[in-house]
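Translate sequence into structure tokens.
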Amino acid sequence: MCFGQSNLQKLRNNFKKDTSLVRQLNEIGDKFYDEKNYTKAIEQYQKALEKAQKVGSKRGMMLSHSNLASAYRLLGEYDKSIENHQKTIQYAQAENEETQLAKSYINLGNVYRNISSYKDALEVYLKGLEYAIKIKNTRFQSIALNNIGEIYRLLQQDENALLYYEKSLQLAKEIQNENQIATSLTNIASVSFKLDKRLKSLELADEAEKLSLKINNKRLLLINYITKANVYSLNKDYAEAQSYFEKALALGPRK
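Result follows.
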């Protein structure tokens, strides 16, 4: 079967329109996602996926599966999230999308961590770190290192956790990412307390507290208040301990 030049151009134009529609549907889904209306977001992402499948857009399918994975995770539908992350990875490998691979492996690790599948989480975080190093993405490297530290903390391997948290902090400082700096400082302070490194824990929690206030991160602030309260309590400075416990209570339950 032969196509004339005009027919080929029509096919190209139609493909561009179709792939543009895939992008638009994903963008509509993103708006619902940002509004925390994840069910509506999934509806749009699913429409985008179906359109991408119809026109054979592998990049469109990759993006749609990635978005579906994120939305399903926040709805607590972890099996669907894992399935969509795995499909995203398949398309990313086929398209040699190394940035997407770094991102997807890290995000898949987050889902495994949610379901306490720590061995699987560690495996894919390490893959995410490998790709992040390959593409020289310092932010992704810092996130992956911090998350690996989290897995070691959950596995009660605090020395290993501390090692990875500190590597994450170093990279976060290089790129001046205040949120990641605050996260890493908070985690180092917390695990240092568990290792009975009280002075280090208190110093870092104090630094993390100031930065958490600056960026208005109440979750990190709460953790640092609790860490400081625990250190002061062990040091028998009960007035300071009570002060920080009260600050923690005022912020509400940890989420």
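Note: The chain has a mean pLDDT of 92.
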